[in-house]
């Protein structure tokens, strides 16, 4: 899916691109609902969505492992590969979806008229609660601090997102993931995250009991992810009319 930005499509204008992927692990179904929430919001008539479409280009691959989903696999593709461990050298034969997405990302990265600013890969977590993110570790302290801005803003917008559960690491086991590989490939103006959401529940601030996730709650998190780009790029003053609640997804 490609959502072009009107302002960025002027002749000679630089395109700011947000690239989102989901469902690389077939069994992590909540990731599809979060991704659906992002898509539904971006194509809606909401004034925030209009501003985002005018200033950013969103590219979304909502299902990186379609054959694994079709077969009902939990983690692997038809060929038995965990695609989220093959970003470093994906094969066009064994990992075709990954290969295609990686080629597209590299082409954009090498295009001087495109600034690939965000890569977010959506997953679901079987033991943790709430939504949270994984980010990368960099030697440059300023870059590391800048990387923390988006999850902090998302925590303000989404009551079920936990910044305290968000962590930054370079675990060797996850070197082949999209977040780790692209975090090492792209320049210091690009931010790569894994967005995780619990399979089962979230805890609101100050509450003692966990709230079970529903399909609507997952999609609401997706809508809040999209809304957070408005804050990140400081586009709030461009929103026309009163800020009504984000539309519910049926």
UniProtKB/TrEMBL annotation:
The keyword DNA-binding does not apply. One of its GO terms (molecular function) is metallocarboxypeptidase activity. The gene is Agbl4_0. It comes from Tychaedon coryphoeus. Residues 1-233 form the Peptidase M14 domain. Gene3D superfamilies: Zn peptidases (3.40.630.10). This is CBPC6 carboxypeptidase. Its cofactor is Zn(2+). Keywords: Carboxypeptidase, Hydrolase, Protease. Belongs to the peptidase M14 family. The active site is at 196 (proton donor/acceptor). Pfam families: Peptidase_M14 (PF00246). It comes from the Eukaryota. One of its GO terms (biological process) is proteolysis.
């Amino acid at each position: 899916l490609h959502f072009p930005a009107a302002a960025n499509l002027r002749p000679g204008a630089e395109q700011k691109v947000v690239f989102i992927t989901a469902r690389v692990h077939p069994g992590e179904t909540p990731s599809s609902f979060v991704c659906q929430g992002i898509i539904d919001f971006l194509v809606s008539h909401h004034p925030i969505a209009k501003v985002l479409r005018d200033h950013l280009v969103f590219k979304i691959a909502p299902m990186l492992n379609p054959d694994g989903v079709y077969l009902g696999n939990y983690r692997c593709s038809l060929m038995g590969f965990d695609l989220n461990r093959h970003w470093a050298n994906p094969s066009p034969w064994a990992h075709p979806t990954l290969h295609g997405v990686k080629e597209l990302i590299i082409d954009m990265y090498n295009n001087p008229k495109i600034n690939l600013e965000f890569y977010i890969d959506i997953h679901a977590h079987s033991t943790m609660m709430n939504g949270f993110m994984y980010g990368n570790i960099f030697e440059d302290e300023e870059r590391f601090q800048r990387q923390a801005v988006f999850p902090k803003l998302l925590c303000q917008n989404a009551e079920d997102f936990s910044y305290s559960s968000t962590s930054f690491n370079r675990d060797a086991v996850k070197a082949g993931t999209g977040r780790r590989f692209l975090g090492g490939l792209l320049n210091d103006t690009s931010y790569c995250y894994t967005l995780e959401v619990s399979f089962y529940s979230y805890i609101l601030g100050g509450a003692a009991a966990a709230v079970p996730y529903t399909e609507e709650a997952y999609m609401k998190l997706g809508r809040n992810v999209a809304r957070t780009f408005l804050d990140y790029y400081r586009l709030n003053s461009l929103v026309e009319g009163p800020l009504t609640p984000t539309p519910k997804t049926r």
